[in-house]
Write a structure and sequence with these properties.
Layout lengths: L1 E5 L12 E5 L3 E5 L6 H14 L1 E6 L5 H4 L5 H10 L3 E2 L11 H7 L5 E4 L8 E5 L4 E5 L17 H16 L19 E4 L8 H26 L10 H12 L6 H17 L4
Parallel strand pairs: 3-4, 4-5, 8-9
Antiparallel strand pairs: 1-2, 2-3, 6-7, 7-8
Length: 275
Amino acid sequence: MTRLVRADNPGPMTLEGTNTWLVGRERVLVVDPGPADPAHLAAVLAAVAGAGALGGVLLTHRHPDHADALGHDVLRSALASARAPVLALDPALGDPPTPGALAAATDEPARLLPLPGHTDDSAALVLPGRREVLTGDTVLGRGTSVVAHPDGDLGSYLASLDALLREVGAGAGAGPDGAPGGSGAPPWRGLPGHGPVVDDLAAAVTALRAHRLARVQQVRAALADLADPAGAGGPDDDGLVVAVVAAVYPDVDDPVLLGAAARTVRATLVHLGRV
């Protein structure tokens, strides 16, 4: 069983807010407890108590909008009282999310799928019995995940999309290449870190991969134009990033989104070996 408690931290990067997912019927795993907001944590713990006992916390990655709640006394006290662990791929934040640790933390069959790229510690929680994947920020409910230098690595992100597609493509209403399958099984759903539920995760991942590769080609084209002697004439790294952002994201003027675009372009330039 999965339930959503959404944090009240909407914004350009968090969409409607951080999605905290509760996994399990009586022994409940809290996935991404969110920001250090007492009202949100009270709502999360009330929902856990309404179902059963707190089995533990799992982080899909280290970013503050998903993990800062770990530092709040309300959650720390609840975890201590339940003798429940924090599970995370980043050893600075929690214990390894091994199969045994997950089985002890929730009564819903679950396994971890490492998906580096958005961050090096990004992961998804696969719920095979429900045909659901808690995707963190690797796949959002709408829009595209930021793969931002230095946290993000574009090559790893593309490989992780391929790994996720292999996980949910076969027999999920879509084939490994995203084409319709013939199994008759319903599509896997994505339960993202932000935004609404993704009803067909394989289709969404296929579209995300195509979009990301198209952005890479746009950056290549911008670099080719900038190499023209009449163009920018070989700016330094920061100047190159600014010039490519202007070429690839001409309609973006929000400062927050421009910052994200610059970090994304820098990650793409690193991927292409240009910075």
